[in-house]
Amino acid sequence: AVFDAFKLLEEIGELNMWVRGAGIVDIRREEDLKAQVETLKNLRDTYNSELFKITTAGEIFIDGVVEGLTARLLEPYEEAAGKGPDYYGIYYWEDMGALKEAFKLLNSAGFQIHIHAIGDRAVRDALDALEYARISVPGDHRNAITHLQLVSTDDVSRFKELGIIANVQVFWHLKEPGWWEYVDAPFLGERAKHQYPLGSLFRAGAVVVSSSDHPVTPIPNPLWGIKVGVTRNLSNAEFYGVEDIENVDDPTWLLNKEERVSLKDMIKSFSANNAYSLFLDDKTGTIALGKYADLVILEEDLFVINPLRIDGVKILKTIFRGKVVYHAEK
Question: In the sheet where 295-298 sits, what is the strand order?
């Protein structure tokens, strides 16, 4: 139904965005993988217009989430998780051979792969399987791993080496009020302080893409995410129902300031890198001759103001393919 809605909007000239969709691949289904790939091919043939295409197989789950104690870790959860001293989480693909062959099959069929990996063990297994697929099926697949809550320092450099896109939800890269003290800190212990290695991925030369995982992030305002990436601190205090901060280094919600990135890199993660990840870099993502005029006009210059004010900057106008599609209310 959602795909048909996008298709209809494009047909009537009211789809004011680029949409690159994914068909679901899930090893937990009764339907075998080859049958699921055939379904994906049919979706790709059905939805294949300029603005709306099905290009991706995902979200392929390697593990679960920390709050559910299902993220797969290299070292056990803390005792506070209540699972005993040797609990590592859940791995949805018990057979690494099957995971490798699945990725090979999907890339062979011309699909980009989009992988859910939260824990550091899940990230490593995803990288291993993608490395196998890369050798087996050479080509420009632009496969991506999303979330990346925990990544071993030994694996950070592999994103660039293997050409794997690091798709992060930068909105979460702080000690989230009502979350940090109940989930991350007690379940992960000292590791929690090193979550979401954003700066490390950038410094290692990875293509880092910022996204929201909406509706998990209920208000996916990119300016909120940009602020968090630059400060690794609180964004939109009103949303969280807490007192705002006045110092970028206020320790209350600050998560490892060594992982801060530049404003330029954060903007790039929401624009040029995102376009690249969607195979749209020849059309949009940067202001360049021959590309569409896809622009956002802001009330203030983000490079001039205090970074703590980024989340409150007003969007005045949005232009899509040279056409104004949004005006702020006066």
Answer: 295-298, 315-320, 323-327
